Amino acid sequence: MNVILKIKSLLLVLVCFSMLSCESWLQVKSEDRIMEDNLYNNPEGFMTALNGIYIDLMNRSLYGQSLIQPFDIMAQCYNCRQDEHVYRGLATYDPGARQSAASSGIWRRAYFLLANINTLLEHCESDRGVLNDQYYHVIKGEALALRAMLHFELFRIYGPIYSEDKEVDCIPYATSSEPVMLSLSKASVVVEKITNDLTEAEKLLEGYDPVITEGPLFSEEEGGASNAMRYRQVRLNYYAVLGLTARAALYFGDKEKAFNYASKVIKEAQEDNAWFPFVTGDAATASGVEDRVYMTEILFGMYNLKRTQLYYEASFSSSLGETAVLRVNPDIQKIVYEGDVNDYRNSYWFQDMKDPDNNNTRHFIKYMGQDKAGTESSSPDHFYMVPLIRISEMYYIAAECCPDPVKAREYLNTVRNARNIAKIPDEAELMPYIEKEYRKEFIGEGQLFWFYKRLFKKELPSGTIVGEKIPMEKSFYLFSLPQSEMDYRGENQK
């Protein structure tokens, strides 16, 4: 039985949320106060509100599409710089196309959710007596982590190259449900607030999140008991918060902190307890039911019954035709994956198919529908998972940040071994291999562009022409606030 169906009873408030108008985040209104008071008068109501927020992360304006696909295109993951390709503008960093990628939809939906997260956080305090200690700590911890995560996504888009500009104004940091206009905060202030929210979330979840002692708990509670504290992989659980902290710390330039958190996740969540083990070869390659998202490794992800439609059919399907499909140049694929057919990612994420012109072309199939397991309710859970934070990233962060070069190499080789490929040569420079692993591992997950922005890479390997380097201007990494938001701010500051 699927996760979504199991928690549907907790999602009634989502309808109310979705009916709100949000032309600008500043226009977002809190729920009707009568409904709100009724919602938060019992623990189930708190879970309803929290689950509604998780579900809305899957919106097309967020992780359902907009936070992933456009940025992978700008990272040169795909072969779409041809004159006739519909995504050529993005792939060539056309100003209009880039601004479209940083759409008002992202901004509106993110701040819409932030308003509801803050409403939930406010009720965690005003209605504290409704919740027992575990519910209070877990719900508040997850909500703070969600607030940090959404601000971090907005910061990566609308913020500066942080190593270059720490004091530039970028985004507001929303900590209240009140629909008032917030001033833009300096980048350093946003970083501090993200860090503080993650720190508090970690403290709240530590000692209360069952993932620490029982693992992901990706199954229904026996005897019909509440599932509120189960399915930890689809929640910002304790280890996901540590992982997000490691990712954010590295992006902010704090390598020591990034290493400490990444290595802590590796040790506690995998080495000591095996809560998030690497996918087995049998699972990754099982005919018809291949686990292409490496389910066991997901620290945090979305469970989305429409994954095939939102991801594969919208972007990667062979039925789309050459001018609309996102395809990897097969010759570049060979270079990126080092020509190693034993690499599970190389062999099982790509497949030759007939396009509408009956040409045999290579297609990316990480999110392609798999229907050989029968009905949806009996299908493996990995058929519907979309990874957002994975244990492999912790190894890459540890490899990049570890002060011991020998140990750093071991971290990288551990993932390579798990993917069924050879260790890197002892004399090889580490960073080029880390970059190559990002290109392999996170295709279709929207992480590579931020790797490049963090490092302020001056040129990127082309996704279209073998050996071509794409010169990168600083402006290619920067995105203006949506015009609707700038107009709104201008009107309200007169």
3D structure, described in words:
By secondary structure, this protein is mostly helical. The chain has a single domain, classed as Serine Threonine Protein Phosphatase 5, Tetratricopeptide repeat, CATH 1.25.40. 48% of the residues lie in helices and 7% in strands. It contains 22 helices and eight strands. A two-stranded antiparallel ribbon has the order 1-2. Helix 9 packs antiparallel against helix 10 (187-205), helix 9 runs parallel beside helix 12 and helix 12 (238-251) runs antiparallel to helix 13 (255-272). The radius of gyration is 22 Å and the shape is globular. It starts with a helix and ends with a helix. The model is unreliable at 1-32 (pLDDT under 50).
